[in-house]
Amino acid sequence: MTDLIRGGMDGGKQELKLSICIATYNRGAFIAETLDSILIQMQPGVELIVLDGASPDDTQVVIKGYQSRFPFIQYYRESVNSGVDRDYDKAVSYAKGDFCWLMTDDDLLRPGAISRVMDNLSVETDLIIVNSEVKNADFTKLLNDRFLKFNSDKEYFPIDGERLFIETAQYLTFIGGVVIRRILWLERDRKSFYDTLFIHVGVIFQHSLANRTLVLSEPLITIRYGNAMWSSRGFEIWMFKWPELVWSFCGFSEYSKSQICPREPWMRLKDLVLYRAIGGYGMSECQSFLEARTNRFKLCLYKAIAIFPASIINLFACLYCALINRKARSGLYDLARSRHATWGSRLLGKLFL
């Protein structure tokens, strides 16, 4: 395998069609599995770029070990961490392929994924969206066999921009599913989307795409669910950052945006209850994010939720996911792993996951 890869990368003998771009931070314990799933599939016309955002753990040691065996791996280490958006932008700037796959640093490519994507790269295509399956953090349980519920590949053309937004934007919160034409990325505004945590969504939806978007319905990525670096910031991200980004796009109707998320999801009591159950919402979040945004009456309700015993809410939420909404496997997984989970919650997780 190594000889084939070196031949494909050596001296420009093969036109580079695809750059797999990984931005990583503190993933020394996980990135080896990710690299293994990629390297075994490498072929001529593909390059691999890893940009390390100044990880203080052993990420550098792990990647240097891989470079000793696979010298074609392009490894760039930043002196300071500048955030995931800037790091992916820098990784794309180093790329030479016609398309860039914005791969994550702890998930896995399924066998045949690179060949499947390579077979669908074309001059008529601006964007390929790669579907995923979802497993738990150690890959022992399948939580969702197909994130996008498409039974066959799907095409969108410039006239279909609104439909593309409605049907794929929520999935595209996962950056690993994005394979984008490099020149399109470089020609579009990126700086406006720094620190949103979703620069790729901003690049894709700031204007209509000029060419085809293709969704590959077969899951080609296995997501390691529950391992996101931003889990501790979940309330801020999903209640504020993500809705603010979605509702900032001027090219879509209010109806379309509402299909992705409410403009102010933090006003929905059921969302606050859920975040209380999983440990993402308490008095500190209430004071930091809600106090200045609402009136006294509503604030009293929000504070009541923030101080209500989270373990009780957690147990009832687990019962709901286990017995009523059986499709909410990811929700049950989050609840059963919460610091507020009771023995009953954990038992329900074992029985129904």
Entry summary:
The chain is an alpha/beta fold. It is 42% helix and 17% strand. It is built from 16 helices and ten strands.
Describe this structure in words.
The chain is 42% helix and 17% strand. The chain is an alpha/beta fold. The chain folds into two domains: 2-224, Spore Coat Polysaccharide Biosynthesis Protein SpsA, Chain A (Alpha-Beta Complex); 231-352, no CATH class. Strands 1, 2, 3, 4, 5, 6, 7, 8, 9 and 10 form a ten-stranded mixed sheet that branches. Mean pLDDT is 94; it is low at 1-8.
For the structure shown, list the relevant keywords:
single chain, 353 residues, alpha/beta, Spore Coat Polysaccharide Biosynthesis Protein SpsA, Chain A, 2 domains, ten-stranded mixed beta sheet, 16 helices, disordered N terminus
Content of β-strand: 15-25%
CATH architectural grouping of the largest domain = Alpha-Beta Complex
Element-level helix/strand string = HEHEHEHEEHEEEHEHHEHHHHHHHH
CATH superfamily of the largest domain: Spore Coat Polysaccharide Biosynthesis Protein SpsA, Chain A
Task: Give the CATH class of the largest domain.
Answer: Alpha Beta
Mean pLDDT: 94
Main sheet specs: 10 strands, mixed
Describe how the helices and strands are arranged.
Blueprint (H helix, E strand, L loop, with lengths): L1 H8 L8 E7 L6 H9 L6 E7 L6 H11 L4 E4 L6 H11 L4 E5 L4 E2 L3 H6 L6 E11 L6 E3 L9 E3 L4 H8 L9 E4 H6 L11 H7 L6 E13 L9 H13 L7 H7 L8 H10 L4 H8 L5 H12 L2 H14 L5 H9 L5 H10 L1
Parallel strand pairs: 1-2, 1-4, 2-3, 6-10
Antiparallel strand pairs: 4-9, 5-10, 6-7, 6-9, 8-10
Helix pairs in contact: 6-10, 11-13, 11-14, 12-13, 14-15, 14-16, 15-16
